[in-house]
Structure formats: C-alpha cells, structure tokens
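User: Round two. Same drill as before: sequence, then structure, for each protein.

Assistant: Same drill it is. First protein:
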Amino acid sequence: HIRLLSWQTQENAILYSIFSLCQDCQPYSPKCYNWPMNISIKSTNIELTPALKDYTEKRIGTIKKYTGEATAANVEIGKTTGHHKQGIIFKAEVNVTTSLGKQFRAASEKPDLYEAIDDVRNEIVREISSAKGKSEAMWKKGARKFKNMLRGFRN
C-alpha cells in the first residue's frame, strides 16, 4: 500500500490531497480502505481459539472503512463470571483509537459470544458514524456562517 502526499499551489491557496495507490482500489483513489489496522484481542475466563480469533478479527476489521484512517482496536472478549452456565454471561468490549487521537468505546453482554461480538461491532460503527456526521455538520455550519459573513462585506 502506497500513500502519496501532494502539495499544490493554486491561486495563493494550498491544496492538500491524499492519494492512495493499491491493488484493491482504482489508481489514485482518495477513498482507499487499505489503511493499516492494529487489532489486539484479550480473552478473559475463556480460551482464545483460532476460530474465535479469526471471527473477531474479521468482524472488527471492517471498522476501518468507517474511520478512513489508520486505526487501533483493543478487543476484550470473555465470560463475565466463571461459575455461571447460562444467561447473559459473555461480554465483548472494543476500544478504538484513530490516528488523529479520537477514541470510541462500545461494550455488549449477550448469552452467545458471537452475538456479543456482532453487537459490539454494530454499536462501534454507529458511534463512529455519529461522530463523523457531527463533525461534517459543524464544518458545513462554519462554512455557511463564513459565506454569509463574506456576503455582508459585498453589500
């Protein structure tokens, strides 16, 4: 995966554009999802089998397309108690840190471990999408105010 950074000067404005060239995307596609993602998995009161590890990495690995940048995810899966045999005994927790320093956290407790992993993945995606929507809305709101301020100078 290659990331090319280019600076261009055009009419006294500096345009910063990120292009990525990889095998899965079109050449110089700004929407490349092959950013590196660090996933560390910790198991509590259960054994971390290869099948469980693969399933967790597969489900949590899809988060990177919602962040759009390098991401680190700390996942903790396991039993809430050691002596219960039924009921809500499995938990999954995810802490996601983006390369810009934003942190997101989600936790879920379910009767099935795979169900808890799916639920925590959906919850963290919802949280990331919500934060992304808020930041885009704030940027648009600021741009709108700036545009109205410039209109006031013309009159």
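Second protein:
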Amino acid sequence: GANSEITEEILVAHEFDAKKLKLAGYTAKQLKEVSFDSMELRTAGFTPLQLRVAGFTPSEMRYAGYPVKEMVDAGFSNRRLMLGGYSASEMRDALDLSLEQLTEAGFQVAHLRSLGFMPVELRGAGFSASDLKPFFTPGGKRIYYMILFSSHFFI
C-alpha cells in the first residue's frame, strides 16, 4: 500500500494509471518518484497542496493547469507564483490584487503598464522615473520630466 515503494510490478498491476495508484493509497510524492508529472497527477485528482508537499514547483503546477486561486490556497506566495510563470493579469483577475501587491510580487513596469496602470500610478508605487522612461513617446518627454522632478502624486 501507501507505505511501500512503487515497484515495476505495482505499476504494471495498476496499468501505469495515476488515478488507480491514487485510489490504491499511493501519494503524489510516491508517484513523482516514479516519473509521473504534474499534469498526470492533476488528472488523477491530486490537489495543488498534495503536489506542493510532493515537491512540485509552481511552474510545474502551472503547466498542469492549476488556477492561481487554488495555488494561493495551497500556500504559495504571490512572489512564488510570479516566478512560476503566472502572469500579472492572471493574478490580478483571480485575486483582485492591487498595484502595490503586484509590485511586491515582483512584476515589473512592462507587466503593469500592460494592465493599464498609468505612469503616475507606477511612480507612486515606487518605480523610478528612469524605470518609466521607455514607456514615453518623444512627445511625452514633458510628462516624463514632470514625473521626474515632482515629489508628490495624487492618485
């Protein structure tokens, strides 16, 4: 059962089927050790928490299709999810994150601009004027210099 190693005989007996092995009491960790991937384990009905305990990364779990909300419920931080490849828009939409929370997760200006945040909002969230410079057209230089030399912003 669940306390023993998964041998080739056990794999054959369960037809190399992750769901059958799960029903027989084997854990996600045991299945990972015999090369089942995150997608196979999700299909078999394992939860994000079970995969996390088994040692799967957020990136591997994203590949399997686990949604952001379930990943947070499994105990992953916003930062780990960002590093695992979840997008700023996925995270904002699923978790209703603020600009500050997205910034703390590690998203950069390009990601945040693509969500529609304005330069003045990004400046207020701690990005420097030079971080924002690539997002101004030549005609926008006046605005860039106003942001550069302004110390207060009303958002």
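The radius of gyration is 22 Å.

User: Perfect.
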